[in-house]
Amino acid sequence: MLPFDISAAQNIAISEELKNDAELQAVRRDLMSRDATGERFSTVLRNTIDQLLNGEVTGRYDWARLNKTERTHAGTLVEINLQREFDFADGHAMDYQIAGVDVDCKYSQNFGGWMIPPEARGHLCLLVWANDYESRWSAGLFRVREEWLNRGSNRDAKLTVKAIHRDKIDWLWHNSALPENVLLHMDPCDRDAVFAMNSGQQRLNELFRRVQRRRIGRNVVRTVAQQKDYMKRVRGNGGSRSALRAEGIIIMGDYDSHRAVAEQLGVLPPREGEFVSVRIAAKRPHHEDASCVVLDGRPWVIATSDDPPEMAPSLPSHTR
Known about the structure:
The chain is 35% helix and 20% strand. By secondary structure, it is of the alpha+beta class.
């Protein structure tokens, strides 16, 4: 006879308890109907972190450079921005009302660091974690129970979830990919070279030159340009698109026509508010069966290190 697995039995019991929590399941269904993939949720988290960094004014791209007050304010901004994105109704006793159920929202940069107020006992909490250094995020529902919490030792008696009871969290999205903070994760030498340039236009040109085949978000562009008209600095007619064309570099935006070019080249297509640059070359025999796209009537492929720079073709018209 096989030994009885107490841990497995406990996990089954917990799973059944979560399934039998009618309010929790109603909230889960509502949230998943709004955002099955979590893309909207992750975009809110990315934008909230960037809002705190305020790169256009400060030039910051690293969470560690936020002051204590700003970090403390992060939870409030996440709460506000999620409500704006999903149009949650105001709760009666908690932050939101979702599927007719009061739900509190708690965010932490440190996994497990959610600070739960005493008045949330018995209620549902939407626990959110996002870490820019790991480029990961999670969000789950938790029924606040006294026996699952650490006692509060701070002045306002806020509580945390005991580590052994984190299995009581019903994860909606767990350890998912957070849109990358390119400036934080790029090679330090390349980053130094970008910020060594004198003008915003030169810095953007250097960014798209050095960071290729990676999604570059609008907030990265804003931080590098540090100018009000930062989007103009990417486009043609004097922007990075025209400045880098002679080097064979194309910069694709979030238009459907540009996304199609990226997909045909085998490059990650830009999402809303993103850009992807890549150096291309006219297809020749040595490129063999490399993925290609037809532009200006000729097939083009991603350039190899052996391909000399040549004038890049025009990108197709902007259609969404």
